[in-house]
């Protein structure tokens, strides 16, 4: 940014006035829906989905025309589809535009570009934007927003001041001041985005959450320049982001304070070796060291070393870091739901449990352990599917199958762990690949975690996935009566509960499909089967999923225990356990019940294996072999 005077509110007002006077850039409306060929007068009345296309196949040729035609304060959400093309437009979305999703064809296909900068026509920083967003409750997906002025001074690509703004899979390209994420009470959510720049290329006063983004530095300088107001609790939060740089860049600071109370936090981020050892800069003003809040937690990479960090930055502990999730950061006096009844920032996912975090913990207990990193195999094909549609999103799964003539005709649903709150299906991709390589069809899935929906939502999801795989058995060369469910840790608890509640309408209310959710066997890998049990050590995480503590919600703690439901109709179960006894809670009691009904069960214990052993060698292959032998025995 540089000279602070250029950021005056007067300059901003002048810029907006000039824009208003020159907004029409060779405007042209097409006003024809390609769906039916009928001509409609859209201007000033639009309250339904519309299409922008440079080739004339949509409703508008220009994005600004589409924006100008939208009804103010829409009573229901609409989508503006922006088809593939390079749109050289300087765009303004006024504060009267709300509840719109702007959907592109992908960051490499839908590109919004302009080239204003502060050295052009006496422009101030806030005049230089490519896209200015003043409206609220807006989403932008699958597009690039760029300023191509080059390294000529301040040149903003995105100027965003509205509240409840979501940017997903968007690329923001520029140099100095690429992104103005601002608005004193504004909340922004950036997910899976790419952001590049040189100096202060993420700056402003918004509460902005950056989830799984790539932050790329193009020169030795500063990434952030927050101007968080004193009365705002959170400024910029970066979670699970990857910080990269051009090859010749070696000294980049995480941030410096544009205003006295700047707040910026990096959590679970991969910090490249271009990050300056000091981490943070005071912008030449020692007095701000007492007022800013700059903090880090659980970062990794060559730039995460804190030995030389400035003394006035903070290192959070796990309790302090636990508040840095979107639903906590975005808390306020305002409603959190959009018009569809879901949080405006989307589904909250806890990324604290990953292969990296599991590896750090495992190395402390078993230094020789090696994480299994398979992500592809030549002889295995993969397809991504949506197995269940909710009102606001689809639940996804990945299906792996061998492309060799070795099919066993058996399908496995794979359920990841993470304390019912964290984790992802990607954790079980190496296992799915190896099972597929051996002739099984393996389907790791996502399910609703406790921050999105509490018990019994996850069980309903898993049963829906079983029914989906059975309905598509012929497509994957599976025998419909040969579907198993496998889960690890919390996923083991879920898999076992899903398996032993076959036929229960309480856990699968679709009466005409109850039989479709049944399984031929269960593989429980270090998952408990009883919550209220002398061997159980479950506490806060279980309480979040079960809707309260044992004292507050005893019925859920009992109902969520597979031990409560096991009986004569339960399928065979294989338990694969490590050396931590609390993850065996209820196992032996459940086996006694199965024995009384002559239902087969088996226990395999790895006495040298800490929890999460299934993700690591030397245990990974032994787990796969145990699963293969169990299914072969049950099939007989």
UniProtKB/TrEMBL annotation:
- The protein's annotated pathway: Glycan metabolism; pectin degradation; 2-dehydro-3-deoxy-D-gluconate from pectin: step 1/5
BD-FAE-like domain ranges (all copies): 411-580
Please name the catalytic residues of this protein: 200
Residues annotated as domain Pectinesterase catalytic: 49-324
Q: Which reaction does it catalyse?
A: [(1->4)-alpha-D-galacturonosyl methyl ester](n) + n H2O = [(1->4)-alpha-D-galacturonosyl](n) + n methanol + n H(+)
**EC assignment:** 3.1.1.11
Signal sequence segment? 1-27
Return any one Pfam family short name: BD-FAE
The UniProt similarity line reads: Belongs to the pectinesterase family.
Q: What is this protein called?
A: Pectinesterase
């Amino acid at each position: 940014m540089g000279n602070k005077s250029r950021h005056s509110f007067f300059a901003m007002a002048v810029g907006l006035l000039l824009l208003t006077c020159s907004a029409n850039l060779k405007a042209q409306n097409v006003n024809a829906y390609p769906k039916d060929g009928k001509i409609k007068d859209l201007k000033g009345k639009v309250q339904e989905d519309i299409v922008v296309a440079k080739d004339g196949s949509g409703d508008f040729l220009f994005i600004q025309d589409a924006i100008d035609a939208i009804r103010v304060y829409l009573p229901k959400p609409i989508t503006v589809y922006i088809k593939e093309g390079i749109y050289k437009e300087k765009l303004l979305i006024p504060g009267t535009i709300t509840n719109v999703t702007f959907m592109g064809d992908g960051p490499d296909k839908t590109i919004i570009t302009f080239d204003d900068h502060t050295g052009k026509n006496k422009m101030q920083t806030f005049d230089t934007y490519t896209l200015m967003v003043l409206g609220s409750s807006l989403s932008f997906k699958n597009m690039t927003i760029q300023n191509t002025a080059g390294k000529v001074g301040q040149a903003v690509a995105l100027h965003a001041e509205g509240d409840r703004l979501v940017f997903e899979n968007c690329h923001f390209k520029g140099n100095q001041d690429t992104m103005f994420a601002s608005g004193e009470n504004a909340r922004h959510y950036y997910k899976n985005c790419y952001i590049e720049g040189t100096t202060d290329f993420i700056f402003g006063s918004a509460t902005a959450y950056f989830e799984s983004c790539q932050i790329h530095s193009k020169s030795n300088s500063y990434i952030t320049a927050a101007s968080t107001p004193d009365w705002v609790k959170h400024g910029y939060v970066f979670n699970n982001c990857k910080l990269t740089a051009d090859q010749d860049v070696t000294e980049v600071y995480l941030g410096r304070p544009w205003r006295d109370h700047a707040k910026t936090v990096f959590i679970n981020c991969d910090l490249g070796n271009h990050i300056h050892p000091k981490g943070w800069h005071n912008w030449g003003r020692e007095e701000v060291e007492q007022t800013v809040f700059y903090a880090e937690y659980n970062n990794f990479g060559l730039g995460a070393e804190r030995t030389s960090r400035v003394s006035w930055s903070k290192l959070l502990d796990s309790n302090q870091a636990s508040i840095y999730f979107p639903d906590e950061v975005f808390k306020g006096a305002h409603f959190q739901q959009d018009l569809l009844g879901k949080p405006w920032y989307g589904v909250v996912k806890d990324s604290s449990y990953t292969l990296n975090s599991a590896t750090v913990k495992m190395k402390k207990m078993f230094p020789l352990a090696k994480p299994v990193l398979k992500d592809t195999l030549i002889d295995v094909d993969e397809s991504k599917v949506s197995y269940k549609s909710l009102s606001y999103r689809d639940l996804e799964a990945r299906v792996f199958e061998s492309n060799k003539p070795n099919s066993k005709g058996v399908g496995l649903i794979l359920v990841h762990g993470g304390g019912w709150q964290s984790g992802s299906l990607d954790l079980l991709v190496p296992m799915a690949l190896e099972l597929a390589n051996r002739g099984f069809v393996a389907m790791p899935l996502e399910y609703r975690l406790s921050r999105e929906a509490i018990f019994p939502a996850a069980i309903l999801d898993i049963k829906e996935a079983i029914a989906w795989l059975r309905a598509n058995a012929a497509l994957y060369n599976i025998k419909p009566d040969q579907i198993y469910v496998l889960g690890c840790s919390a996923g083991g608890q879920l898999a076992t509960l899903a398996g032993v509640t076959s036929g229960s309408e309480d856990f699968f209310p679709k009466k005409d499909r109850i039989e479709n959710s049944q399984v031929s066997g269960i593989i429980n890998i270090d998952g408990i089967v009883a919550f209220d049990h002398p061997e159980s050590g479950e506490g806060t995480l279980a309480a979040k999923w079960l809707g309260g503590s044992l004292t507050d919600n005893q019925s859920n703690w009992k109902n969520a225990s597979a031990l409560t439901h096991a009986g004569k109709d339960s399928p065979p179960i294989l338990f694969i356990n490590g050396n931590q006894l609390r993850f065996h809670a209820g196992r032996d009691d459940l086996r006694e019940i199965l024995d009384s009904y002559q239902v087969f069960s088996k226990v395999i214990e790895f006495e040298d294996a800490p929890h999460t052993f299934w993700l690591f060698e030397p245990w990974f292959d032994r787990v796969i072999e145990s699963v293969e032998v169990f299914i072969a025995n049950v099939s007989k």
